[in-house]
Amino acid sequence: MKLLKTSLFIIYIALLAGQLTLANFRATDGDLVAAAETRLQELSTINRQLEAQITSLSSLSSIETRARQDLFQPVTASTFTPPPVAKVP
Description:
Elements: H1 2-57, H2 60-69
């Protein structure tokens, strides 16, 4: 009988230690998940800012302003009209 009580006590202590260990791992996992969610929110904010910046910088007016600052000249299109030639009957 004493052996049974001792064995049950040892099993109880082992299970208790296992429970505490698993609870510690779960708590650490929760911290990691919270940190990942925070980082995801930060990256989403940065992504939205970059998308707005890309939209702004790729607009034609902004490209034209930058080209003028860099001293680019506007393209002038010229067409060549050949002189009239007499038709052969």
